[in-house]
Amino acid sequence: VLGLLAQEPMSGYDIRRYLRSLNWLVDSPSFGSLYPTLRTLLEEGLVTVDIVLRRDKPACKIYSVTRDGAAALEEWLEQPAPAESSLKTFVKRLVLAGNLSGSRLIADLEQRRAQISSHQALLERAATSLDEGADRKRRLALDYGLAMAEAETAWIDETLQSLSQPRENPGPAAAAANRKAGSGGT
Amino acid sequence: VLGLLAQEPMSGYDIRRYLRSLNWLVDSPSFGSLYPTLRTLLEEGLVTVDIVLRRDKPACKIYSVTRDGAAALEEWLEQPAPAESSLKTFVKRLVLAGNLSGSRLIADLEQRRAQISSHQALLERAATSLDEGADRKRRLALDYGLAMAEAETAWIDETLQSLSQPRENPGPAAAAANRKAGSGGT
DNA sequence: TACCGCATGTAAACGGTTACATGATTAC
DNA sequence: GTAATCATGTAACCGTTTACATGCGGTA
């Protein structure tokens, strides 16, 4: 929440709408947890409110991060994601990449790449132990996991490369285009 | 839990170990929720216990599904995943693909493909609305989402194809090989 | 006037994790 | 004898969802 407000002051309703638009990537909290969270942040002095009256719509409360809030956010972002760190954690941090320092972002990507490798190893072990004549359906989840791991690794590698060459402006769009063109990748 | 026990009778500890090996795909419950769950299933008559004493290891309780349990599982599996259905739901069902009827599995895959399309559309809308000169880092999450959507769609299409041609035995392994060979995709 | 989308909020219920407690068996 | 792994279990805590409650503003 702090991260989103740092990108742009918003109301609780806005946060919800924004997170809903990323529905697939991150799960958006219900109002029942979102509003109390904002209340807490306010009481802790990490955000301030600004009640905005509009003639066309009902009034809303726009929240902005304070200096303390920005410091708290930075503290959270700068401490590397915990070693176990799930996909959810990674994606959350990716959503806040705009607030992340370049080196921190690269470290996150590399950490994720390493985690995928170890997960891949686990899945491969599981696949071989299940091996031989086992019904295809039983292996589907493993195959899915391996395919996704491969795809994610490829994306991370592309992204790391494009981040290390900031002179050009290939950006994610160009990377996507490369993918579509099917230029032989690793 | 019922689905795993249907594949093979196991102890709570085994379930945990198995789910841990799929760590990345599904999150394994803590013992604090797993054991009470088994207790409940037992009380509901959906599973039975068998205390097994071994000389080399401590005793353990092997759970097996009863007829009622199998019926309950089937009921759960046959009702298509709810329309919203998250990635988690999809993967969970994929892990249990062995217990799923062929037509149900295909329906699940197709439903997921459709969901990805709509999510893709959302992400693309978000990407264009954020468009123009926006800092690359701000778009990273969107790009990630789109890349993963693409990869998942590709995997689903391959899998659907291989499932519809059961005469050959290409299986997931062959599909993976195709991917690696980089034969022109969709 | 009735309804729908916007916007905020609260309280109960629920489910899961964390932390704790116990004990058998093997290996150092 | 002591640590580590295997194995099971309980209770407090905590965050989230669900359901409910309220009200403004536009529109059919």
How does this model look, in words?
Two copies of one chain form a homodimer. Chain A has 186 residues and is mostly helical. Helices cover 63% and strands 6% of the residues of chain A. In chain A, strands 1-2 form a two-stranded antiparallel sheet. The radius of gyration of chain A is 21 Å and the shape is elongated. The two termini of chain A are 37 Å apart. At the A-B interface, α5, α6, α7 and α8 of A face α5, α6, α7 and α8 of B. Chain B binds a DNA duplex (28 and 28 nucleotides) through α3.
> Which quaternary structure do these chains form?
homodimer
Number of E-type strands of chain A: 2
Which structural class do the helices and strands of chain A define?
mainly alpha
- Average pLDDT for all residues of chain A: 85
Number of helices of chain A: 8
Q: Describe the largest sheet of chain A.
A: 2 strands, antiparallel
From N to C, what is the helix and strand string of chain A?
A: HHHEEHHHHH
- Rg of chain A is 21 Å
Spans of chain A of at least 5 consecutive residues whose pLDDT stays below 50 are 181-186
Which two chains touch over the largest interface? A-B, 54 and 54 residues
| Cα shape of chain A | elongated
The percentage of residues in β strands of chain A lies in 5-15%
Compute the separation of the termini of chain A in Å.
37 Å
Work out the helicity level of chain A. 55-70%
Strand order of the largest sheet of chain A: 1-2
